[in-house]
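seq as requested:
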Amino acid sequence: MPKLGTEYNKEALFNKLKSKGILWCYSKMLSYQELGDELLIEHVLKYGDFNDLKSLFDIFNKKRVEKVWIDTLISDKRFIKLNYFLARFYFDKKVEADYFKNMKNRRYEKLKLLAS
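struct tokens:
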């Protein structure tokens, strides 16, 4: 069940990230509805500060945030330190940083397929 004011809180977090320059777009009229939940979660995980992360977990349940993390960030080698931090601090995973180094990089594999 969504928390009271969830849509308002999502919009507020979106506007905060947009004003920080974290969410940029060629269109100045980009709205939260166009971006959607998954991209908002992904951008907060990648580029948000502690207050942004706190807001994220206040708005979305932990399982939803973890699913986006697994689907979009966990295999991205550019974010090994961030993934280690998120895994240990937010998702209660008992892993070491080497765990992320040994993962197959999905982003790299997709780019390889596009290039061929």
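Residues 6-115 form one domain.
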